[in-house]
Amino acid sequence: MSNSDFPGWHGTTIIGVRKGGEVVVAGDGQVSLGQTVIKGTARKVRRLSPGGHEVVAGFAGSTADAFTLLERLEAKLEATPGQLARASVELAKDWRTDKYLQKLEAMLIVTDGRDLFVITGAGDVLEPEHGIAAIGSGGNYALAAARAMIDSDMGAEDVARRAMAIAADICVYTNGNLTVERIGG
Predict the structure, then answer these.
(1) Catalytically annotated residue among 12, 13, 111, 174
(2) 4: Cβ contacts below 8 Å, ≥ 6 apart
(3) What is the Cα–Cα distance from 18 to 172, expressed in whole angstroms?
């Protein structure tokens, strides 16, 4: 089967929302192959504790690739305890230059409760504007919904949950089975 014949894996919406001293990362549970939902309860948001420092990470893309990246991130965080920005930049540099890592197809949202970053295979470590980051198939829908609600009286978790519900209503590759991790606050 050639690459053009393979329908490809789709799914995942991950959002990170920072508001009021707290950061929430939420992700849906859907994994699809073509037009078929393969799994509706995948867990794509994880809590890491390298060197005793709490970090929450959410991933979109290939699961095996994402786990490889999460392991690399943990190693970078152990080498630079409490320095998420530095560890993220080091991971992005490796991802961009290492021939093995260049083939990995995933994106990450990471936070330590202070910083919130999107890490990509293009070597990007992006700190989002307005304290909101979103990736994956329904990421743009969730981002737009969260941006519309961020100035309301809702907390970070409520904004993330409502934004994910809106994305799930619009994006066929996103469902309402959420994993939510909170840090800070």
Answers:
(1) 12
(2) none
(3) 26
Give how far Cα 101 sits from Cα of 54, 93, 106, 179, 180, Å: 25, 10, 10, 27, 28
Q: Which residue bears the tokens 């549970």?
A: 29
Helix axes 63-79, 84-97, angle to 10 degrees: 130
- 19 CB neighbour count, 10 Å cutoff: 23
Report, in angstroms and rounded to the nearest whole number, the Rg of the chain calculated over CA atoms: 16
Q: What phi, psi does 44 have (nearest 5°)?
A: -115, 10
> What tokens were used for 6?
């393979």
Q: Is 32 helix (H, G, I), strand (E, B) or coil?
A: strand
Nearest one of 79, 89, 84 to 123, comparing CA atoms: 89
120-153 confidence digits (pLDDT tens): 888 899 999 899 999 999 999 999 999 999 999 9
174 carries an active-site annotation: no
* Residue 60, CA atoms < 13 Å, CB-side half-sphere: 26
What is the residue whose two structure tokens read 């809106």? 166
Look up the pTM and report it. Answer: 0.91
